[in-house]
TrEMBL record:
GO molecular function: 3'(2'),5'-bisphosphate nucleotidase activity; metal ion binding
InterPro entries: DPNP, Inositol_monoP_metal-BS, Inositol_monoP_superfamily, Inositol_monophosphatase-like
UniProt cofactor(s): Mg(2+)
Keywords: Hydrolase, Magnesium, Metal-binding
Gene3D superfamilies for this protein: 3.40.190.80, Fructose-1,6-Bisphosphatase, subunit A, domain 1
Organism of derivation: Artemisia annua (Sweet wormwood)
Matching Pfam families: Inositol_P
Protein's UniProt name: 3'(2'),5'-bisphosphate nucleotidase
Family: Belongs to the inositol monophosphatase superfamily.
Binding residues for Mg(2+): 123, 186, 188-189
Length: 326
């Protein structure tokens, strides 16, 4: 998902001297994955979203879908039990929240956009849940999804049956393609962070004729203020959204007015900070540390699970993001 939604590549050339380096921030970038200022209150302003975009309806639907999925995930994470975890063939952890998130996103998109052809490229299919040994898991997913829909109150529908849930999960098995519109979903990005009670994200994008035109990133545990200044009492739960050529916006998951956010305006590398993956298995911490040193960066890295780091970057919590594969 990260690679499909990223619209720019930044090449870092090693610097021979350890002198402060002038940064070239991508100010006012329309890319979904680029940052905003480290002092949030200094540059933000409430805005009225443009109504001129041809993807306004899709954006509203995507924000609703990701918000409901985040609500379900928050409730599950609070009472997370080790028995919730399954194992996929690639050995990555899968939770009840993974299925539930996908069901809610698919359900909401189809309810909000009934006249549009629906194509969703997602992670899960119903194969494992149709097995006899998975019936208890399926029952729990169904209950959690119905509870989330009922508590929201938007949709006056009968409770979904287990058969309905299986069918909706399989709506996410589209192969996509270069023609038409296709939604792309990672129902829980950062599963290890989710299991630890740390950062994770629900990542949803829309492709039109093979081009990314819209993205939404729900980060249930990301503070609304800069992660460098927030405390345990800081309210958490952010929803980032962007349309092509319309900029990036952030709001709370409970529906505060969206504000336009901007990349870091730091020009001195000694004052800059950088993000990298929390898991050392996902990125070479030693190599990214060496790059930071060559750039003159003094601050220690901020290590965050999932694409939540891109949301933090896009609002200026840091100036760099290093993803160096091993």
């Amino acid at each position: 998902m990260a690679s499909s939604l990223t619209s720019r590549l930044v090449h870092l050339n090693p610097i021979t001297k350890h002198t402060p380096t002038k940064l070239n921030p991508l100010k006012n970038s329309s890319s979904f994955y680029f940052s905003l200022p480290s002092s949030l209150n200094s540059r933000r302003r409430a805005v009225i979203m443009s109504s001129s975009s041809s993807y306004d309806k899709q954006l509203v639907a995507a924000k609703k879908a990701a918000s409901l999925a985040a609500r379900l995930c928050q409730n599950i994470q609070k009472g997370l039990l080790q028995s919730d975890v399954q194992s996929k063939s690639d050995k990555s952890p899968v939770t009840v929240a993974d299925y539930g998130s996908q069901v809610l996103v698919s359900f909401v998109l189809q309810k909000e956009l009934p006249s549009q052809a629906f194509s969703l490229v997602a992670e899960e299919d119903s194969g494992d849940l149709r097995k006899e040994e998975s019936q208890e898991t399926l029952q729990r997913i169904t209950k959690l999804v119905n509870d989330t829909i009922a508590s929201d109150g938007t949709y006056n529908v009968s409770p979904l049956t287990e058969a309905d849930v299986l069918t909706i999960i399989d709506c996410g098995t589209s192969e996509g393609g270069s023609s038409g519109q296709h939604w792309v979903l990672d129902p829980i990005d950062g599963t290890k962070g989710f299991l630890r009670g740390d950062q994770y994200a629900i990542a949803l994008g829309l492709l039109d004729e093979g081009k990314v035109v819209l993205g939404v990133l729900a980060c249930p545990n990301l503070p609304l203020e800069s992660i460098r200044t927030s405390s345990q009492n800081t309210k958490a739960g952010c929803l980032f959204s962007a349309q092509l050529s319309c900029g990036t916006y952030m709001e709370s998951l409970d529906g505060s007015p969206p504000v336009k956010v901007h990349v870091s305006d730091t020009e001195n590398s000694e004052e800059a900070s950088f993000f990298e993956s929390y898991e050392a298995a996902h990125s070479s911490h030693s190599l990214s540390g060496s790059i930071a040193k060559k750039l003159g960066v003094k601050a220690p890295p901020v290590r965050i699970d999932s694409q939540a780091k891109y949301g933090a970057l896009s609002r200026g919590d840091g100036a760099y993001i290093f993803t160096v594969s091993k």
